[in-house]
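Exam revision sheet. Question 4 asks you to relate a sequence to its structure. Input first:
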Amino acid sequence: MLAMIAVPGATTRVAPARHGTQPAGDMDELEVSLARGTIDLLILKALSWGPRHGYAVAEWIEQATGAALLVGEGTLYPALHRLERRGLVVAEWGLSDNNRRAKYYELSPAGTRHLRSGASSWHRFVEAAGMALRATAPLPG
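Answer key, structure tokens:
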């Protein structure tokens, strides 16, 4: 499972959740589902400009979010493997810039379609949730 650990006024780290009871700050099932879906979309977006190895994906997410989200290996690689099993990314071994063997991930046509529809759904969800959270009074019942 995933957990987003908020550091007030700083960074949100995305990391594996602890098993057992949930201390304050751990995520419930809805939050895990939202975090997982968001991380998946961010990974697909990172790959939308071409193949990248895992470290480059994490680096892109960090840069694109102004370091507000840091995706650790314990979250990134299971997500990449999950996306690969679902046919949304394809992987191939290659050499990195420093001549080290690395697995490169690339969007499949299904991944491109999923990114497009998922991003649209995510934006609608955020707008609707934001509207509700900005409400200043309950609706007349």
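Marking note for examiners. The chain has a mean pLDDT of 84.
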